Please model this.
Amino acid sequence: MSGGRFLSIDPVVTDANTGSSFNRYNYAKNNPFKFLDPDGRSASEPKDICAGLSRMNCGTVESSTAGRPKEFYDRSGVGPNLRGNEAVAIVEDELVSQGFIVLGREVVATTKGLEYTRRYDLVVLNPVSKNTFGVEIKSALYGPLKLNEKQVTFDVGVIKNGAVTTRGIEFDGIMYRGVDFGTKVQSVFRSATLLDKLKEAGVFPALTKPPHL
Model:
């Protein structure tokens, strides 16, 4: 892509209701600062990076932070849901760069001994060790990164008994990643009691630095 346009033709059929779509080289509605378009098929605002595509099949998300205006990260300019989605994209980029394979996004899982289900932001596979992990991603603006007691209890159960998603993906590993958009100082996961509970189960939460810091 160069200058906000693809160099190859858009594979999507022209939409007669949208005049700009007649330009088959138009990328992200000619506004790549506002819209995301991971594969050139469907432009959307960053609150839904996989709009128009199956969550399981929307492909590896290329960095959605490239070209993001600074205002995106300001205190008054971002809500928790939008910030959370951006954190997922950042962590996914990092894990993919480390060699992990994304098996699912926003998946719902069950584990033995617990009646409630648990949603994970990602499920990833380490192709070398063949271990599969449910990934919980926490985001904050000037910290802290808050842990949830019900989620942590479920995670400990997964470590002991394994889990399976509604799509049949099995995993028995857990990852925690945190992204703080507001400070260069290292954020902390809280509460300390829940953090100790995770560490006792062999889960050690880690931080990912957003690209603007």
User: Anything to note?
Assistant: Residues 1-62 form one domain. The beta strands are 101-111, 118-125, 132-140, 145-146, 163-165, 170-171, 173-180, 189-190, 206-207. The chain has three helices and nine strands.
